[in-house]
Design goal:
heterodimer, A: mainly alpha, 12 helices
Chain lengths: ~300, ~325
């Protein structure tokens, strides 16, 4: 077991390496890093409280006191944007995690042992894909009631079929392998085979897709909040902030500009990471940068030659 | 081919059944009480009971399922709790606007995206390629409501463009043939109306289409890169065909293959993203109707919206599938 774990850790390390060596990947990691940091230490870096109203200073354009200006209630927008990172990050995390878990379970159950029952399960899953995702989420969230939790439920329900199909496809190809057949001969039960053999081998594709979807999920949640179905005002969620700022766009552009800019940067960061990840795993693309390993290898050769 | 159509239509019927069932399930899991949303939190027991009785919300689930189908098959999507008019009428009035917006946005995404993607692929790893890739990355990362608001700010408020909505005044409205202003104004040779409609639709269409522009550019670029390396391209060049000729005759058709499959999904994304753009630009389409239904917790309205969009989307996918099979002779009409 230890060897197995070591192997997986090395795989992760190698993947991280690849992201680090492309310049865009570095920028993406930096942005996401800033996001995570600001989520955690928000109370320390925000100069004002995101909820405190200060009517004397309302609708101030960006100045030295208030970097991003203030809104109609006098709340500092910079502080609100910083606190808003919590909603976006947790939204992305929750949605992708829940969708992956549910989707994996359905995909595994349908994929192994497969056959007609599995195919039927997949057909039901595909029913969900007949809806454009955002529209279905609107229908669900609107009927459940507008709140953060309900929007999480709605988006997760809309997202899981994608991962179910992914895991199902992986399961179909993985179950043809020898080790699975050996496990069948040893009469291991289905659940054991799924968890020990099929799922770990589909993890790679799953994680890549989840990373790529993280930024998408944040965008999705922001759009739901904008329509009024996600986090509700006065919560300093970016989408909700843009929504309330919509009415004041011509007199206070900063109210809508900065939260939207924050969404843009965060999604951009995740997309950059996802892009470099995808480029790294695509064997047909020649990478411009030399990987650290090759560079170290060349250095090693140099040293070896010197020693000899 | 005939068998394929039949098979596909049967599949479509099953999908439609699935859609209606899912919509119904969403409907019956309604913790959000429309009665309270309508009357506010000051509603008392009597009002709620009367409200529920009127809209049939107090009948058992299976009876409602049966009634649901009974009405759906007659084309009755219920009556809007908000406007007291039949939902189907509201949808019929607003759908053409959204359809027009989505279609123009798709056209923008493709008309700009395809040449850009080809150009990017040909100049791989040179400056134009990097610029294009950067732009398309921005395209898929920008929240469309933010972009819409920025366009609104710059072009409507600062630069003083046209006003909100589809047309400047009721006089300029073209004669209603299809409900699509651009098409109707061409068909009735009303050029002033055409120009005015175009001026109104271009901003929301760009805001909506920017996302897909990024996607289309990236897809065309990667599929062009795949195609260019193929042997038949080298053979055509060796035979003396010019670069432009090769692209036009061989490369484009094959590069467009994966893009056409995503056309359906992109169209669905635009139909659903339209709700946001319509809110911002005061576009009187299905999205505006949906948004008003959301604020007022108008359950029949929301579900009518979901239902209609889902059905339209299914048909779009069917058509795209047919086009795809028509264009690529390798994928025949035999398998589903």
């Amino acid at each position: 077991m230890n060897k197995n774990l070591q192997f997986r850790i090395n795989e992760l390390k190698r993947t991280l390496n690849v992201i680090i060596t492309t310049p865009l990947g570095i920028i993406g990691l930096l942005i996401v890093f800033i996001l995570i940091i600001s989520t955690i230490i928000a109370p320390l870096i925000a100069p004002y409280s995101p909820f405190e109203a200060d009517f004397e200073n309302s609708l101030e354009s960006p100045n030295l006191n208030h970097l991003f200006g203030t809104d109609t209630l006098g709340r500092d927008i910079f502080s609100r944007v910083i606190y808003g990172s919590r909603y976006s990050l947790s939204a992305g995390l929750i949605v992708v995690s829940v969708a992956v878990i549910i989707g994996s379970i359905v995909g595994l159950v349908a994929g192994y042992p497969g056959g007609r029952k599995g195919a039927w399960l997949m057909r039901i899953t595909d029913m969900f894909l007949a809806f454009p995702t955002f529209v279905l989420a609107i229908g669900l969230a609107a009927n459940l009631g507008p709140s953060f939790v309900n929007s999480m439920i709605a988006i997760s329900i809309v997202y899981w079929p994608k991962y179910a199909r992914l895991v199902y496809g992986q399961a179909l190809s993985i179950k043809e392998n020898q080790y699975v057949k050996y496990a069948q001969v040893l009469r291991e039960n289905n659940t054991r085979i799924r968890l020990r053999h099929i799922f770990p081998n589909s993890l790679a594709a799953l994680l890549v897709q989840a990373t790529l979807d993280f930024g998408d999920a944040i965008l999705f949640f922001a759009a739901l909040s904008f329509v009024g179905l996600g986090a509700q005002p006065p919560a300093p969620d970016w989408g909700a902030m843009v929504s309330t700022a919509r009415n004041y766009i011509n007199i206070a552009w900063w109210m809508a500009f900065f939260p939207g800019l924050a969404i843009f940067f965060v999604v951009l960061g995740f997309n950059l990471i996802g892009d470099s990840l995808r480029d790294a795993l695509d064997p047909s693309l020649r990478r411009l940068k030399i990987s650290k390993l090759t560079w170290l290898g060349k250095l090693g050769d140099h040293l070896l030659v010197k020693e000899k | 081919m005939k068998y394929w159509i039949l098979k596909r239509l049967l599949l479509l019927l099953i999908v439609l059944w699935g859609i209606t069932t899912i919509v119904f399930i969403i409907n019956s899991v309604v913790p959000r009480d429309p009665a309270i949303a309508m009357y506010g939190s000051f509603a008392d027991e009597e009002d709620i009971e009367r409200f529920n009785e009127r809209w049939g919300l107090d009948k058992p689930v299976w009876r409602r399922y049966y009634e649901f189908y009974y009405y759906i098959l007659q084309g009755d999507l219920g009556t809007s709790v908000r406007t007291e008019r039949p939902v189907i009428v509201e949808i019929k009035n607003t759908f053409p606007a959204t359809f027009e917006l989505a279609t123009v946005s798709i056209m923008i995404s493709f008309i700009i995206g395809v040449p850009l993607g080809i150009f990017s692929a040909l100049k791989r790893n040179k400056i134009p390629d990097h610029v294009t890739r950067f732009l398309s990355l921005i395209g898929v990362s920008t929240p469309n409501f933010w972009l819409g608001l920025l366009i609104l700010l710059v072009f409507y408020f600062y630069l003083g463009g046209v006003g909100p909505g589809r047309i400047s005044s009721a006089e300029l409205e073209p004669i209603k043939i299809t409900g699509l202003y651009l098409l109707d104004s061409i068909l009735s040779l009303n050029w002033r109306s055409f120009i005015d409609s175009l001026q109104h639709i271009i901003y929301p269409a760009v805001a909506l289409g920017f996302f897909g522009l990024g996607i289309v550019t990236r897809m065309i670029r990667s599929s062009m890169l795949d195609v260019i390396r193929k042997d038949y391209i080298k053979a055509a060049r060796a035979r003396g065909l010019s670069l432009v000729g090769v692209i036009w005759r061989h490369a484009i058709k094959n590069a467009l293959n994966p893009v056409i499959t995503s056309l359906g999904v992109l169209y669905g994304a635009y139909l659903s993203g339209a709700i946001i753009i319509e809110i911002i630009f005061a576009w009187p389409g299905l999205g505006s109707f949906a948004y008003n239904s959301i604020i007022k917790a108008d359950s029949p309205g929301i579900l009518g919206y979901v239902f209609v969009i889902a059905i339209f989307y299914s048909f779009v996918n069917l058509i795209v599938d047919a086009i795809y099979r028509l264009l690529d002779p390798r994928i025949g009409f035999v398998e589903v």
